[in-house]
Design goal:
The complex is a heterodimer of chains A (333) and B (492).
Chain A lengths: L3 H12 L4 H4 L9 H6 L2 H16 L6 H9 L7 H7 L17 H4 L10 E6 L8 H10 L9 E6 L5 E6 L8 H5 L5 E3 L5 E3 L9 H5 L5 E3 L27 E3 L4 H5 L5 H5 L5 E5 L4 E4 L4 E3 H7 L15 E4 L16
Parallel strand pairs in A: 1-11
Antiparallel strand pairs in A: 1-8, 2-3, 4-5, 6-7, 8-9, 9-10
Chain B lengths: L5 H5 L7 H16 L8 H27 L14 H25 L6 H20 L1 H4 L8 H4 L6 H21 L2 H12 L5 H10 L7 H34 L11 H27 L8 H32 L4 H8 L3 H20 L6 H28 L14 H24 L5 H7 L10 H8 L14 H4 L12
Helix pairs in contact in B: 3-17, 4-5, 4-11, 4-12, 4-16, 5-8, 5-12, 5-17, 8-11, 9-10, 11-12, 12-13, 12-16, 13-15, 13-16, 14-15, 15-16
The chains are: A alpha+beta (333), B mainly alpha (492).
The structure holds iron/sulfur cluster (2 copies).
One iron/sulfur cluster binds next to helix 9 of chain A.
Amino acid sequence: MRKLSKISKQASDELDLIPAESCASSVDGQACPITSAALVEESANKEEKDLSRRRFLGMFGAVAGATAVLGTGIELLSYRAYAQSLPKTNNWTGNSGMTGSGAADMASTVAPPTHQWAMVIDLSMCNGCGSCTAACQKAHYLTPDQTWMKVFTLTNSVGQTYHLPRPCMQCENPPCLHVCPVHATFRQDQGVVLVNQDRCIGCRMCMAACPYEARYFNWNSDVKYPPIPVEATPEFPVPQRLGTVGKCTFCVGNLNHGLLSECAAGCSMGAIYNGDLKTDVAVNGMGTTVKLSKFLYEKNAVTYKPEQNTHPRVWYILGAGQDLSADASAAKS
Amino acid sequence: MKETDMNENVLLDENGHRAAQQAWAADVRRAALKPTIGRTSVAWRLSVTVLGLIVLAGIGAWIYQLKYGLGAAGYNDQAFWAVYIVDVVAFIGVSYGGAVISAVLRLTGQSWRAPLTRLAEGTALVTVIIGALFIFPHLGRPERFWEIPIFVNTSSPLFWDFMAISTYVLATVIFFYLPLIPDMAIVNKTLGRADRPVLYKIYKVLSLKWMGSERQRRMLHSVLTLISLIIIPLAVSVHSVLSWAFATTSRPGWMETVFPPYFVIAALYSGTALVIVVASAFRKGYHLERFITKRHFVRLGYIMAALGLVYAYLTIADLMSEGYTGITSGWIRETISGRYAIPFWFYVLAGEVLPIALVAVKKTRNIKGMTVASIGVVIALWIKRIVIVLPPVTQPLIGSYWGTYHFTWVSITITLAGVAAIPLGLMLLFRVLPVLSIEEMEEMGELGSVEQVSRETLEAQKHLPAFAYANGNGNGHVNGNGVGMPEKEVQL
Ligand code: SF4
Ligand code: SF4
């Protein structure tokens, strides 16, 4: 796992430009690396150039070309449209917030909403190696079936294959939350949708409702967990409870402690960025730091299955011919 | 309790038919009460033992599943809903049939219903309880079930399922209980206290001081009419809400506008079929041949066939638009010609073609034919529910990898236990309660049970108050209360 603080230290050493105010309300004693790194504009620009160079080396050639291809005929909600629809105050509490009687007491273990976590996945960078899945499974002691972060290999309309890493989208309008009969699924104030496995009755209504197949059940009692010194919490549900549902937690514990999520840290291609909509920064496992809104805007980032009205907190940057809209119909082959 | 002589009321006879009426009443009572008195037959004990063992095996399998997880029942992440939710839908579905058949026949004043109502309502009661119990193996954490009414989430379809099913169970219990009130008084009167002191006491309490006075009758019949009126829309709502547990998700194949009526009709269809199966079995086993005749089977067969046609229509409506546009039709392709084709076409044959053919052909329009047809429907509609549930569950929402549900001994045993619990529950129920609705049958008279009603009989019946209760209006008090049309009560 890569420590963010190290990156930020480098950045701040170079430019000494940490605005005190953006760190003001972070967790006690914790550095506020993303924030500090973020506002280092120059560094970000440099990194972006870096990124572009890498993309030029990609298999389908020029970025411009790819964007042009994608611009035609894809009716995905672009980040541009999304940004325009937002209120000017940039109040990212989403439209469903925390609901339910149980949400309040479970939120007590997480930091106040200094951050609104998001993720950007650059599909043009993903080579489908599956390191993100492996890192996630290792950290959360998942069974091989439980691919909280799953890399799908898909074929676009012209027959090219590409890879789609799919975490939980942390929907701002999460269908899984609405259907949960006992409020075991809740959305904490940083926008992360979590499951309280001490309350979940295992009805799997949420699995039926999630359009992204992001939820995984604990079907079997024969899973072996090593002795774990801490209590299982919704943020880090290890060991998981038999007969309840689990899913990607965005590694919100990591994020709040200045670390990248396991998948982002594990991705050797730097395709996965952890982002914070509040401080407008995103960082990937290679240490590339970008200004989030600018990055999404310029790369014309899209969300997956916008027609589901879920408002994901995960954006995809399409690269070479990925055709996300074709997947809804599934199984053409 | 003031013990008014029931016979005074029952057998009041102005036209000299007293003897015939008395004989009929005696026959009814003998047949209805025989299973409840004395030692049970060897066959009865053997069946109860075998069925009981199957139910016990199911409970054992459930305990195993509790220990090892739902994976033991063949579930996995791409088949997260399967056989138990199908059982919930199917059992509560057949229950609806029993209740609504009985309610509709009551409301329309069909005299031929009399020998069937108790069986139909008993079936409704037993199956709704079994269906509701199947929620427990369905849940990963059944011991947390109490959370549903505590941590209420009104935006969850499952909360409304909970509300709907519990209301419906309550209504079914009431619907079963009300016609029992006079019967329990009759039973206590007929059998006495001596050899059944406990039951006597229970009946005495539950029969609410029933004496058969005219005021009591009027009240009972208004209440029965009311609950019959309530139970029909209630059952419609239950099955609609059940269907919305599926249709409110965005899964192709479930998010269908046709789902609520689709579920309601499926419930009615399979429920009518189960009433036929139960009537056929109890007719043989409890020697009710005299009361439940070919006419009953043929009429229920007609109702079943009509519902079957509506269900076929809805099935086509469900598949048509999506199948044609092909937008999200992966599940349709798999249903019609892919991995779910065998169960789907089994439904078409055994659940539509066979029963409708058996009803249509005059030669097979008899007790045997109707029984075979309805067994086919009950099985085929359970399988149809599998075909409704599994393709949308196992379809890939991303990519093209289809999931598979594997039946295991655990899920099969638990389901079979549910099936065995129907006859077991009914046999135990009718060990303590009369298998026929005595009061109703006496009231409707013998005409409800005759094989063929001739025109002359029909004419004669109009002038014979003896066939109905002579309770002041000469029309039979059900109809006298403004329900149905007395003169057309017996139809050919
Ligand atoms: S991706 Fe699925 S599990 Fe995650 S928040 Fe959205 S609906 Fe819920
Ligand atoms: S499985 Fe658990 S988290 Fe999912 S809807 Fe049911 S109770 Fe809620």
